[in-house]
Recover the amino acids of this structure.
């Protein structure tokens, strides 16, 4: 993998992490939007690591499989969060 | 016998397993670790549903800043580990070793920050039996920290036994540690 791709992946991870901090400190603690936002950002970070660091971008099939698994996990986490918050 | 009627032997279809980069067994490990940590985080959220206020009060005692710094440390370490593989594939063994030492060093930084985090909880008298929240907190983050320790050891081993295959496998494990952390961090430290 070209070094430029790796550095771009790293920058994307830093930006997404910064985004998580912004959402978490936005004064919307406990809101559905905050929870959904940080989980979506977590999914994007996981995708960057799988696609670029672990090289799954080379296989469309396996990228889709892992997208599905991570997506289902985060959707279930969000549903449990909503259930636990009485929404 | 009419050979012209015999069906042509089928050529094997595309083997999707061969599309996976690196060792197949490493991907089995990655998938199983995602399932194990995923189950633990689901259990955490299910127990949270029984006492959301108690979980929120306990979570307020966590150091989000230290955890955020650790996110940056781990993803940067992942970059260094990936750069090591790239250097090794290009035949630059010394460069690859240097990248591995930086990656492993950042792994140790992660563990030191985690150690301070645990020590601050201990100084408050907080342990695994304080509450269900802290039981999960210590269990999940502690199990992850053990993976970081194993990853640092693996990076040190492949800096010595530095075949491309060895290095790819160890670095894939290191990225797994990174992947688990980015899923664990928002659920344990942020969702309230």
């Amino acid at each position: 993998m070209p070094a430029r791709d790796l550095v771009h992946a790293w920058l994307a991870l830093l930006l997404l992490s910064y985004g998580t901090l912004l959402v978490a400190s936005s004064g919307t603690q406990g809101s559905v939007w905050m929870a959904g936002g940080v989980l979506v950002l977590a999914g994007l970070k996981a995708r960057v690591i799988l696609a670029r660091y672990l090289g799954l971008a080379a296989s469309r099939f396996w990228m889709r499989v892992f997208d599905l698994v991570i997506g289902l996990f985060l959707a279930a986490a969000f549903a449990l969060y909503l259930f636990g918050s009485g929404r | 016998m009419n050979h012209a009627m015999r069906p042509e032997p089928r050529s094997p279809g595309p083997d999707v397993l061969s599309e996976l980069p690196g060792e197949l067994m490493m991907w089995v490990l990655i998938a199983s670790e995602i399932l194990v940590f995923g189950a633990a985080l689901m259990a955490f959220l299910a127990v949270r549903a029984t006492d959301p206020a108690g979980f929120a009060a306990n979570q307020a005692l966590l150091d989000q800043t230290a955890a955020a710094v650790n996110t940056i440390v781990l993803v940067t370490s992942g970059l260094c580990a990936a750069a090591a593989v790239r250097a090794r594939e290009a035949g630059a063994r010394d460069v690859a070793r240097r990248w591995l030492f930086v990656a492993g060093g950042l792994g140790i930084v992660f563990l030191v920050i985690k150690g301070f985090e645990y020590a601050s909880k201990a100084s408050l008298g907080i342990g695994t039996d304080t509450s269900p929240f802290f039981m999960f907190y210590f269990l999940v983050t502690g199990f992850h920290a053990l993976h970081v320790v194993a990853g640092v050891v693996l990076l040190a081993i492949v800096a010595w036994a530095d075949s491309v295959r060895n290095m790819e496998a160890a670095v894939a494990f290191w990225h797994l540690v990174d992947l688990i952390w980015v899923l664990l961090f928002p659920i344990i430290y942020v969702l309230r």
